[in-house]
Amino acid sequence: MQHGMGAPLPPQEPAGRTGWAQGPHIHAPGAPLQGGHPPVPPPPVPGHHQPYPPPPAPQGPPPGWGGAPAGQATGHITVPPPVTGTGGATIAVLLIGPAGAGKTTVARHWAGRRPVPTAHISLDDVREWVVSGFADPQSGWNENSEAQYRLARRTCGFAARNFLANGISCILDDAVFPDWPVVGLGGWKRHVGPGLLPVVLLPGLDIVLERNAERSGNRRLADEEVAAIHGRMAGWYGSGLPIIDNSTYDVETTARVLDDVLARAISGQPPA
Asked: What pTM value is reported for the model?
């Protein structure tokens, strides 16, 4: 059982359970599109965060595009610039990361800037629909909080399937641990569907501690718990999932990098 942003830290799964090292691989930004592009750098070593560079600046229009004076024939047909990013694709995204990674802010920004209807489904928001008898994350991990998260996760999955059935994309955010593959990522794929696209948002520890300190109420966790969550999230390195270190990115840049990662995944480009 995983917890969402601002949730209590569940116990680690017993030794011997494997992560997603053999799972589906979605390569991260930087993979070559065609010959001549630089190769993707080797995966970072766990514990050493190497942020991906911001996506390349949009290229200008090809020669002759829109440049001929009115009434003058150019003698050739010009082609509009290629469309980049996810465009109008209907997709379901799972944004994974520790408390303070900026998952909710980035997910909301990405969903709001797409040219097609896209819904942001926040696990924490759904969990907090329960008011009377609410399981406060700061009270620790117990059967009540576990049941509440399980219910919230199923509710989010139902909402996502309903949006997709009506042609609306969606992005969910949750703190999914790599050492809980069946309950975590596997559970989300059962709830939403096998086409779910997971991406990990993992800035440096100093960043998540700083952001967590700015929180208020039950979404703010103790520094020790934030550090423990962040350490377990490092297990995603080597899993095959794309990891975005947004330590030096603002929200707009992180959303653009996320869109580039997703565009590469849905285009079926080979893993790096």
From this structure: 0.67
